[in-house]
Specification:
The chain is of the alpha+beta class. Helix content is 31%, strand content 15%. The protein has two helices and two strands; from the N terminus they run H-E-E-H. The protein has a two-stranded antiparallel ribbon with strand order 1-2. A hairpin with a 2-residue loop joins strand 1 and strand 2 (28-32).
């Protein structure tokens, strides 16, 4: 399960390659983005499933902050 979760996170990182990914912690991504970028748009991109996981239901949530903190 952990290997699959990692592969899905890496796929999300590839879909967000236009963003500045500062770090990742387990299943979280920390992105430095333009303030005009929509959090909903980022979450939508993270919900995309890899081609090999067709039918897998994914969800993503996030928050906007000026500095890193645990939610």
């Amino acid at each position: 399960m952990q290997a699959i979760a990692r592969d899905i996170l890496c796929y999300a990182m590839q879909t967000l390659r236009h963003c500045s990914i500062v770090m990742h912690i387990h299943d979280e991504l920390v992105i430095e983005a333009n303030p005009r970028m929509s959090l909903d748009a980022v979450c939508e991109q993270m919900r995309r499933t890899p081609p090999w996981a067709d039918g897998l239901i994914l969800d993503a949530a996030g928050y906007v902050t000026e500095f890193y903190k645990k939610d």
